[in-house]
Amino acid sequence: MARIGPRVVALFIDWGLAMLVSFLFFNADAVANLAIFAAMTLVFVSVTGHTVGHRVMGMQVQRLDGTAVKPVDGVVRTLLVCLVIPALLSDADQRGLQDRVRQTILVRTR
Protein backbone atom coordinates (compact mmCIF):
# COMPACT_ATOMS: atom_id res chain seq x y z
CA MET A 1 0.00 0.00 0.00
CA ALA A 2 1.20 3.50 -0.80
CA ARG A 3 2.52 5.57 2.09
CA ILE A 4 2.18 9.27 2.78
CA GLY A 5 5.44 10.42 1.16
CA PRO A 6 4.74 9.16 -2.36
CA ARG A 7 1.10 10.25 -2.04
CA VAL A 8 2.13 13.84 -1.29
CA VAL A 9 4.65 13.90 -4.15
CA ALA A 10 1.98 12.56 -6.54
CA LEU A 11 -0.46 15.22 -5.34
CA PHE A 12 2.12 17.97 -5.96
CA ILE A 13 2.77 16.61 -9.46
CA ASP A 14 -0.95 16.55 -10.29
CA TRP A 15 -1.60 19.96 -8.75
CA GLY A 16 1.44 21.39 -10.56
CA LEU A 17 0.17 20.11 -13.91
CA ALA A 18 -3.24 21.62 -13.21
CA MET A 19 -1.59 24.93 -12.30
CA LEU A 20 0.42 24.89 -15.51
CA VAL A 21 -2.70 24.37 -17.66
CA SER A 22 -4.54 27.02 -15.64
CA PHE A 23 -1.65 29.46 -16.12
CA LEU A 24 -1.45 28.83 -19.87
CA PHE A 25 -5.16 28.97 -20.67
CA PHE A 26 -6.98 30.68 -17.79
CA ASN A 27 -4.57 33.32 -16.49
CA ALA A 28 -3.82 31.22 -13.37
CA ASP A 29 -7.41 31.40 -12.13
CA ALA A 30 -7.82 29.46 -8.84
CA VAL A 31 -11.24 28.08 -9.74
CA ALA A 32 -9.94 26.93 -13.12
CA ASN A 33 -7.01 25.28 -11.37
CA LEU A 34 -9.30 23.27 -9.09
CA ALA A 35 -11.58 22.37 -12.00
CA ILE A 36 -8.64 21.18 -14.10
CA PHE A 37 -7.24 19.16 -11.18
CA ALA A 38 -10.66 17.58 -10.61
CA ALA A 39 -11.16 16.81 -14.30
CA MET A 40 -7.71 15.23 -14.64
CA THR A 41 -8.18 13.16 -11.50
CA LEU A 42 -11.68 12.08 -12.45
CA VAL A 43 -10.79 11.00 -15.97
CA PHE A 44 -7.50 9.30 -15.19
CA VAL A 45 -8.60 7.46 -12.03
CA SER A 46 -11.88 6.38 -13.64
CA VAL A 47 -10.19 5.08 -16.79
CA THR A 48 -6.72 3.88 -15.75
CA GLY A 49 -6.80 3.79 -11.96
CA HIS A 50 -4.12 6.41 -11.51
CA THR A 51 -3.36 10.06 -12.12
CA VAL A 52 -0.17 11.28 -13.78
CA GLY A 53 1.36 11.77 -10.33
CA HIS A 54 0.33 8.29 -9.23
CA ARG A 55 1.90 6.82 -12.38
CA VAL A 56 5.16 8.71 -11.85
CA MET A 57 5.32 7.56 -8.22
CA GLY A 58 4.39 3.96 -9.07
CA MET A 59 0.94 3.85 -7.49
CA GLN A 60 -2.54 2.81 -8.59
CA VAL A 61 -6.04 3.04 -7.14
CA GLN A 62 -7.68 -0.38 -6.89
CA ARG A 63 -10.76 -1.81 -5.24
CA LEU A 64 -10.13 -3.78 -2.06
CA ASP A 65 -10.99 -7.00 -3.88
CA GLY A 66 -8.14 -6.30 -6.34
CA THR A 67 -10.35 -5.37 -9.29
CA ALA A 68 -10.08 -2.20 -11.32
CA VAL A 69 -11.87 0.91 -10.12
CA LYS A 70 -15.26 1.70 -11.59
CA PRO A 71 -16.15 5.11 -13.02
CA VAL A 72 -18.38 5.83 -10.01
CA ASP A 73 -15.36 5.16 -7.76
CA GLY A 74 -13.43 7.79 -9.67
CA VAL A 75 -16.25 10.32 -9.39
CA VAL A 76 -16.79 9.89 -5.64
CA ARG A 77 -13.07 9.71 -4.88
CA THR A 78 -12.37 12.88 -6.90
CA LEU A 79 -15.14 14.86 -5.24
CA LEU A 80 -13.92 13.90 -1.78
CA VAL A 81 -10.25 14.60 -2.60
CA CYS A 82 -11.22 18.08 -3.87
CA LEU A 83 -12.93 18.78 -0.54
CA VAL A 84 -9.50 18.18 1.13
CA ILE A 85 -10.78 17.33 4.63
CA PRO A 86 -11.88 13.74 3.76
CA ALA A 87 -8.37 13.02 2.47
CA LEU A 88 -6.96 14.05 5.86
CA LEU A 89 -9.21 11.62 7.76
CA SER A 90 -7.16 8.46 7.38
CA ASP A 91 -7.37 5.13 9.16
CA ALA A 92 -4.59 2.85 10.42
CA ASP A 93 -4.00 1.63 6.84
CA GLN A 94 -3.55 5.25 5.69
CA ARG A 95 -6.74 5.05 3.63
CA GLY A 96 -8.49 8.39 3.51
CA LEU A 97 -12.25 8.78 3.65
CA GLN A 98 -12.27 8.99 -0.16
CA ASP A 99 -10.96 5.41 -0.26
CA ARG A 100 -13.04 4.01 2.58
CA VAL A 101 -16.33 5.25 1.12
CA ARG A 102 -15.82 3.37 -2.17
CA GLN A 103 -13.79 0.43 -0.80
CA THR A 104 -10.66 1.42 -2.73
CA ILE A 105 -7.01 1.58 -1.82
CA LEU A 106 -3.94 3.28 -3.29
CA VAL A 107 -1.28 0.61 -3.77
CA ARG A 108 2.35 0.63 -4.84
CA THR A 109 2.85 -0.96 -8.25
CA ARG A 110 6.65 -1.13 -8.13
Automatic annotation (TrEMBL):
List the GO terms this entry assigns under cellular component, sorted alphabetically: membrane
InterPro entries from the UniProt entry: RDD
* Membrane spanning residue stretches: 7-26, 32-53
Domain spans labelled RDD:
2-88
Q: Name one Pfam family in it.
A: RDD
Kindly give the membrane topology term recorded for this protein: Multi-pass membrane protein
Which stretch is the leader sequence?
Answer: none
Instruction: Name the UniProt key words of this record, in alphabetical order.
Output: Membrane, Transmembrane, Transmembrane helix
Q: What protein am I looking at? A: RDD family membrane protein YckC
